[in-house]
Specification:
The chain has helices at 35-50, 110-113, 139-154, 165-176, 201-209, 213-238, 241-251, 260-267, 275-288, 295-301, 319-328, 343-346, 348-363, and strands spanning 6-8, 22-24, 73-77, 80-87, 92-96, 118-122, 158-163, 181-187, 306-311, 332-337. The protein is α/β, with parallel strands linked by helices. It has a single domain (73-194, 216-363), classed as 3-Layer(aba) Sandwich (Rossmann fold). It has an 8-stranded mixed sheet with strand order 3-4-6-5-7-8-9-10, with helices on both faces. It has a two-stranded antiparallel ribbon with strand order 1-2. The longest helix has 26 residues, at 213-238. The radius of gyration is 20 Å and the shape is globular. It comes from Oryza punctata. This is AB hydrolase-1 domain-containing protein. Residues 93-354 form the AB hydrolase-1 domain.
């Protein structure tokens, strides 16, 4: 699944008022010319946003991060207001959400991890309680945000954990500031492996340079107008509360955790005046550039242990990608969970246990047993 999916923004309250957070996390959306594509887009957006279908209701026994309508902590980054949660003490862990979600997507993970570690969960620019800035959204903007967060807020090496787009962002940041990243954990990460038959970047740039006046003055404006109409419809459709609830209950086998808290966290956010425009920029411009950054390029630069906590039932980023990553990068541990695109929220008890056991092995200086089958205790059944 590609880094591109789409977002619609942030949250300001947990009430179900019909102005939602939409997100398409991790899905490769080309152009929504058919109703089935629109439907798939809405499904993906909801899935990546705060899905929490807990396996066997295990989340009911876990402490949950209190929802605060005004958020927790704020950090100013390049003049923009960025929201984050901070709990616990000890070695730092930084949690990064997927497209359209927020720090509250880690609601069942933060309290548990904070019993032993200092936990941070950050809202990427354009999402959650962070500012809906009208900027050119590209993979590098979130990578730079995370790198600066590690430098300015965390201020020491950390384990960085990311889901979907957050996974790709985590991997990207780890290659840019390896001195600040102890280990990387990916949950059904977005991103693609490069196509060996793809022409080199220099050849790709040539057509743009040769673009004629007709294309520049007529074709491109018409294409943009069409995109705005289609994406505007998608944005409107995806923020209907009943629609969100229906999709949530259809993409996860166990809908126990599809509660008012979850639905409110998704439907509240699009009230921001910039929400629609940010959604359009994320969907149209960011997606067009996603092939510039590939997983193989980043993995070639990675220099720390890697854990894949993978929801094998994810219809968009299945276990085949986890196997491909493990084959490409030797220092990889894979734990397969019987969950979907957001295993940390769907199966939080199993996710927390698997992550803590792996972190304990790192703390003890033990090499990860990446070639053995996961123990039943680490699996969501």
């Amino acid at each position: 699944m590609s880094v591109a999916c789409a977002a619609a923004l942030p949250t300001a309250s947990a009430r179900r008022r019909g102005s939602p957070q939409i997100a398409l996390d991790g899905g490769k959306l080309v152009m929504m010319q058919r109703r089935d594509l629109v439907t798939k887009g809405v499904t993906l957006s909801v899935c990546c946003s705060l899905l929490s279908s807990n396996s066997n209701g295990s989340a009911q026994a876990l402490e949950r991060l209190p929802f605060k309508a005004d958020g927790y902590n704020f950090w100013t980054w390049r003049g923009r207001r960025i929201h984050y949660v901070e709990q616990g003490a000890g070695q730092p862990i930084v949690l990064i959400h997927g497209f359209g979600a927020s720090a509250f997507h880690w609601r069942y993970n933060i309290p548990e991890l904070a019993k032993k570690y200092k936990v941070y969960a950050i809202d990427l620019l354009g999402f959650g309680w962070s500012e809906k800035a009208l900027v050119e959204y590209e993979a590098t903007i979130w990578m730079e945000q995370v790198c600066d967060f590690l430098r300015e807020v965390v201020k020491e090496p950390a384990v960085v954990v990311g889901n979907s787009l957050g996974g790709f962002t985590t991997l990207f940041a780890a290659t840019e500031v390896p001195e600040l990243v102890l280990a990387v954990v990916l949950l059904n990460s977005a991103g693609q492996f490069g196509d060996p038959n793809r022409p080199p970047e220099a050849a790709e740039a040539a057509p743009a340079a040769e673009e004629g006046a007709v294309t520049r003055l007529v074709v491109r404006p018409l294409k943009e107008a069409f995109q705005r109409v289609v994406l505007g419809f998608l944005f409107w459709q995806a923020k209907q509360p009943a629609r969100i609830e229906k999709v949530l209950k259809s993409v996860y086998k166990d809908a126990t955790n599809v509660d008012e808290y979850l639905i409110g966290s998704i439907t509240a956010p699009a009230a921001d005046p910039n929400a629609g425009e940010v959604y359009y920029r994320l969907m149209s411009r960011f997606m067009a550039n996603q092939s510039r950054y590939t997983l193989d390029r980043l993995l070639n630069k990675l220099s720390c242990p890697l854990l894949l906590l993978w929801g094998d039932l994810d219809p968009w980023v299945g276990p085949a990608k986890a196997a491909q990553i493990k084959k490409f990068y030797q220092d990889t541990t894979v734990v397969n969970l019987q969950a979907g695109h957001c295993p940390h929220d769907e199966a939080p008890e199993q996710f927390n246990r698997a992550l803590l056991e792996w972190l304990t092995s790192l703390d003890a200086g033990k090499p990860a047993e990446s070639d053995q089958e996961p123990e039943p205790a680490l699996q969501s059944v």
